[in-house]
Amino acid sequence: MLTCFQTSCISSAMFLTAMAANPLCATLTLNSINQTIGWLDWAKAAIVPGLVSLILVPLILYVIYPPTLKSSPDAPKLAREKLEKMGPMTSNEKIMTATLFLT
């Protein structure tokens, strides 16, 4: 869960439109030093530190907070059993799946 939180912060910093504070920073830059920062400018500046962080943060967190369960060989079998118990998809579930694929 901690890795999800940390990588979400990183990806939010990588793109100008990823979070509300980023366009605010671009506007403040324009107002204070009269320098325009566009979407591509932001992406070019953030791509290297962002990708490095996306690679390193999960590895560092794995070392600092190692998982207590590192292997679960029975998981596929258990998942198959649970899916069989649930039965076939309902029409509402199929509609939702189609909607997700279309968007």
From TrEMBL:
Keywords: Membrane, Plastid, Plastid inner membrane, Signal, Transmembrane, Transmembrane helix. InterPro entries: CitT-rel (IPR030676), SLC13A/DASS (IPR001898). The chain crosses the membrane at residues 42-65. GO terms for cellular component: chloroplast inner membrane. Residues 1-20 form the signal peptide. It is a multi-pass membrane protein. One of its GO terms (molecular function) is malate transmembrane transporter activity. It is found in: Plastid, Chloroplast inner membrane. Its main location: plastid. Belongs to the SLC13A/DASS transporter (TC 2.A.47) family. DIT1 subfamily. This is Dicarboxylate transporter 1 chloroplastic-like. It comes from Trifolium medium.
